Every structure is written in structure tokens, then in C-alpha cells.
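thread: overnight batch results

M.L. [08:02]
morning all. the overnight job finished for the chain we discussed friday. pasting input first so we're all looking at the same thing
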Amino acid sequence: MGQSKNREVLFFVGGLFPHERENEIRKLTKSGLQSAANNLQWKFIKGYDSCLGAENVHIFNSEYIGSFPKRYSGLYIHRYTFQHSKTSNEDVGAGFINLPVLKEFSRAARLCSEIDKIDCDICAQLYFVGYAATYPIVTALHHAKRKFPDSVVALIVPDLPQYMELSRRGAGFLHKLKNHIVSKRMKGMDCYVPLTAAMAPYLGVDLTKCSVVEGIADDSVATDLGTTAQDLPERYILYTGTLQYRYGLGELISAFKELDDTGIGLVVCGDGEAANEIAALQSENPMVRYLGVLPPQEIKGLRNGATLLVNPRKNEGDYTKFSFPSKMMEYLASGVPTVAYWLDGMPNDYKGLFIDATDGGLKAALNRALAMDSEKLYQLSSRAKTYVLDHKNSKNQCARTLELFRKESMYIER
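M.L. [08:03]
and the structure it wrote out:
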């Protein structure tokens, strides 16, 4: 590549949606669009670009999409190239065969093939950063470490495999083999970027090998007003995300029906098992709007126009220790008052940044928020926005991970 050796180069191995392909991916997706994972990966890329320069950040991509034919209309994803930034070099979409089970092995093989093409003389220090504990990613990182022993390989862990929906499907030999390899290889990384500190023991390491990144605040959430859907209630509570009952959608529906303030509406975006009940509620109540899956610009507009934002997920089950819902960071960064339950996986510095539903439940918390003095609500939401934008932005969060990578590189050199 003709570049100086005395620098750092980072290869991001993930499954994001390139901007020029995003509309096609959304169009071909039948269910299970991975919007939250896509958004978080782009925030990491933005942070690494800021810290290292976009010319030193390269993407090996194998997008997280559903399998053909039930969840996605494309059978074969062809190899492609793209640029994630005007100043970046060429990035690669590795391509793969998009059939159930087989696609995981195909994605892994194609990613490894792309890693084999790296010119090992391009720099003094290589970092390979993979997104998510999935078979293709951990296999590609394992391959990178074998090919470049002096490199640092790091795994971003937004979910532990035992709590990922994918790991609960199927019981065939290939599926079991894949999960066994994931469990073994994910514990062979140089370091980790987990979502919560509680993940460290499950990764087989202590926190000295981890840089916890519970989420990344995007300042465009606060500055970009987005586009707003028409025909909405003048005042409304907004929920965006996966519509699963285990995430508290049933309690949200029940709480809304019994609110003291009958002049408040409920707007819901997303897809999942609770979609039919919300659609039925819309037909019964003119203050309810179910808008389905929307593009990010429309979500931003809805969020910025909301009276309250709500995350009804309760602090129940072991997985809450390993969870920081991505929507919480977006909610807090928007400057709109947020109602949510405190989760065990939340760092203590988030206390006092939202209206906690732990005492009394969701209905009581929503009633309390709707009855609050507007100036107090404004102060609460402004404090939350300022905190996350100042301390949890992409550059700061990624800089912390780079400190860990540099420390690990020193150990490798010894």
C-alpha cells in the first residue's frame, strides 16, 4: 500500500451495512433486521477513524442478515468493495452463500481468504477487532492471529453466545460443532471489549484484559432532527426496538391503558411477537400508532418529537447482568426524558440520568414522569444528554479500547 510502517493499522472484522447497500439490504430483509448491531458497529468505525485516521482503518465485512429464503431474499452475496470514508482505503465485503447453517461456514472461509491477502509489511502494528461472538468472526480473528502472531486480536462482545437468539436454534451436528468452536476460540483472544464488566468471568479473563464499552453516544442523535412521520398524537410516549414480550412490551401495553393522563399517545416502532397486539390496540385506540420498521432518519424524528421515551425491559434473569440496551444510549443522547428500569449491567455513572421504574413498576414511573414539573424534566434530560455526549462519544470510547490494544501489543513484543 506504500504507507509508512511506524503507525497503527486496524482491521475491523464485522457485519455492518455499507451505506450504499443499506437500502437493498432493508428491501431484501423479510424479518430480523439487525439495525442495532449495524448502528453500533458504525459508531466503532467512526471512533477508530477519529483516533487513528480513516486511512488506517480497514473493514472486512460479512453483513449480519437473515438466511435465504425465509428471512432474506438473496441466496448469494457476491464479493464487493466500498469506502467507509472519503479518506479511507478500499474496504471489502467478503460475500458468502446465504443458506441456513452453511452460510456461517461460508462467511468464515471468505473472511479468512480476505485476511490472507493482507500485505504483512504495511505497518509496525496490526490490530484485528471483530464484532460479536459468532462463528465467522471468531474464526477470522483466530486465523488472523495465526497469520500475524505479533498482531493484537480483540473481540467486541455485545452478547454472550448462551444469551444470543442464534444459539438457541437448531440441534444438528453442524450447529453443535459451530457453537463448540465459538466457545473455544472466543476465549483465545488477546483482549476483549465487552458490553458489561460481568461478562469478563464468562470470557475466562479478568478486567485487565477488557475495556468495557456499554454503548456509544452519537452526537448526530442530538443534532440531527431527522424526519417526522405525519398524523401523530400531539404528545406521545415512544418505544423503538424489538417487540418481544421478554423485553417488557406486555407491561408497556398494560401500563399505557391505565395511565392517569388520557391525553398522551403511544407510538411504537419495530417488529417482533408483540406486533399483532400493538396493531390491534391501534385499531381500538386513536392515541396509539404502530409504525413498524422505519429507517434511522424517521426514528430520529420520532424520538426528538416525543414527550417521553420508554424502555420497559425489567431487571429479571441472568442476562440483565450482561445487558445495556443500545436504545438507552440513543434515548439519553437525544435529550428527551427517559423512563426505564435499572439493569444490573448498567454502570453506576448512569444513576440519576433517567426516571427509574424499579420502585413501583412502569405505570407508576410513567405517571410520575408525566406529572413532573417541566423544568425538572428538562434538567434531568439535559444532564443525561450532556453526560453521555461528553463521556461516551465514539472517540472517547474507542480511545479507551486502543489503550488496551497498545498495552497488549507491548506484552506480545516481550
